[in-house]
Amino acid sequence: MKPIYPFARFAYRTLIAPWPPYAVFLIVIGAIGGTVPLLHIYATTHLIDMLMAERARADASSIDLLMPYAPYLGLLIGMMALHWILYYDTFQRYLAAHLNERVVQRFNKTFFWRVFALPLERFEYPEQHDTMTRAYRAINGIHPRGQSQIAAQELYAVQRLISCTTGAITILYALSKVNIAIVLILLIGGLYMMRWSMRHERQFIDIHYDQTARQRQRDYWGRLLTERAHAAEIRLFGLGNYMLSAWRVLNDAMIREIADARRTFTQTLLILLAIMAGLFGLSIALLIDQSSRGTLGIGQFVAMLYAIHHYLFFLHNNGHRITRMQWFFAELRYAYDFMEKEAPPSRSFPTTDATASDAVPEVIFEGVSFAYPGAEKPALSNIDLRIRAGERVALLGENGSGKTTLVKLLLGLYQPTKGRIYIDGRPLDAIDPKTWRTQVAAAFQDYGRYAFRVRENIAFGNLDKRADEAAIQRAARQSAADEMIATLPRGYDTLLGREFETGTDLSGGQWQALALARAYLRDAKILALDEPTSALDALAEVAVYRRFSDLSKGKTVLLISHRLGAARLADRIVFLRRGRVAEVGTHAELIDAKSDYATSYAMQAARYRTEGSRDGE
To answer: Which of 33, 231, 247, 307 has the fewest Cβ atoms nearer than 10 Å?
Structure first.
């Protein structure tokens, strides 16, 4: 059995702690609401009995006539007003909205931090995305039966549940004074109805859980059809009908699953409602029998009719609220599983760190292997590699040889599945990741395109320098982005991207130049450049590599490039093949050894000569 206390504590922190007065208000007003039926029965009984017992004098005024009934009339009016307050959302909508804003803000803040704290390799697991989707949906989402899953509505449902439950108990208490058989009939029938309803609602919850992965796939296909990034290619290749058909098939299958469960639910519900109607009729028959025998007054008879009718009303409301809360707390448990159980273990690191020195460290890979989740073969196998302090190393090899993976291991974004990485003799996994990441920088091939201003796109490389205009402009010059920035409408203050109004989009090469500027702004000890000129034109590429020697002074640089000519800028070349180090040496050494690198270099050089001669024609 799952532990209740930790989940209850999480639920309290998530739903109640953001604004405790609202929860107290709901409990108090819910308890008060339970007294309404009893007072209503009392007032109705006495009013009818008084009317049956007394006849007004012909000469009496209206005020004189009403005076004896005034206390009971006032009680009925008060009960009606309280009923409206309890069940017609008067000022509670304002309070609920206020609470919901606080709950969602606090939850999302914690949720985003938890996602940010996840190790990068966790994002390689599809199950991880399903877990995050369920957790986020618990507070922010809507489940397929169309009910908003927001905290305020669920706490309001608690208030309604308290009111209906206490109201039903008071009605059963009043009925017990008249006929205990009616109490047993209504109690047993009501409990069975709620038990059946909860069991069938569990089926919908399980279906919704099982559909999470397909929901993500369906939503992804929907984004392909609607987002700008894929619009041109989808239209060019006529992919719209194919993708829409795939989306429709998946969506129809999911709808059928829900519809089948809903049909079974409805058919059984109709049978149960017929049974409840029979129990209601039996209860009324018992009241009629007592009244006709003179053991039940007319006032009590009418009041008991009201009581039974409202008991069924409360029963219906409780069934609805309990099943809805069942949905919510099932979803909330998914949030608990992610926010609490998936929290990364806390680790302590020394306050003094070897990486805090100004010296550029030596890096050693010792028997390092790494495999992506679900992959049949490791991306890297038994890597033994020494990178000297301040050395410029070119990582070369065919696609999929493990170049980018090796860099991400060095940056601390992935952890080796085997072996260790040492920084000046100290294991990398013993260094505080936050400290280490201040010492390294990278420009990835799949660089980010942030819909922020130009200066922010560069400053993201080192937020401590976001107000340092000179440093930002220097990084732009180093990446050869400064001339492009000068042509933009507002220079460094230009909003980029098409996501927001007034945004200016850039070409792939221009975005890549900003990614390079981000890396240069960090002024890190170790700099990794993954295909840093893949999207640049020839002139921009020449400008970048012309600055390369100056920019790499005093740093350790790892350069990944398919353009083997750039490798001549490196002190040493590491040629990878199928996740292993195949060759290591300088350009001249590998050429003289007639290695695979030499063969690839000759083939690429011949292609460039051929293209050049054609251009000359």
So the answer is: 231
Closest CA to 587 of 366, 414, 396, 332: 396
Q: Which residues pair with 368 in a beta bridge?
A: 383
Strand pairing report for 572-577 and 392-397: parallel
Residue 500, token pair as written in the block: 């927001």
Q: What one-character DSSP code corresponds to residue 537? A: -
- The DSSP call for residue 531 is S
pLDDT tens-place string over residues 344-366: 555 666 655 545 567 889 999 99
- Give every CB contact of residue 529 below 8 A, 6+ residues apart in sequence: 442, 443, 516, 519, 557, 558, 559, 560, 561
CATH number of 5-340: 1.20.1560.10
The torsion angles phi and psi of 133, rounded to 5 degrees, stand at -60, -45
pTM score of the predicted model: 0.69
Sign of torsion, CA 214 220 222 224?
negative
Confidence of residue 136 (pLDDT cuts 50, 70, 90): confident
Where do the DSSP E strands lie in 314-452? 363-370, 380-387, 392-397, 418-423, 426-427, 440-443
Tell me how many degrees the CA angle 160-163-168 measures, rounded to the nearest 5: 120
Give backbone dihedrals phi and psi of 139, rounded to 5 degrees, phi first. -105, -35
Residue the block writes with tokens 């550029």: 360
Domain ranges of the chain: 5-340
Instruction: Summarize pLDDT for 367-424 with one digit per residue, the tens.
Output: 999 998 878 889 999 999 999 999 999 999 888 899 999 999 999 989 999 999 999 9
**pLDDT value at residue 391:** 92
111-134 confidence digits (pLDDT tens): 888 888 888 878 877 788 888 888
Encoded tokens for 215: 């929901």
DSSP state of 494: P
Report the alpha-carbon angle 48-51-53, nearest 5: 110
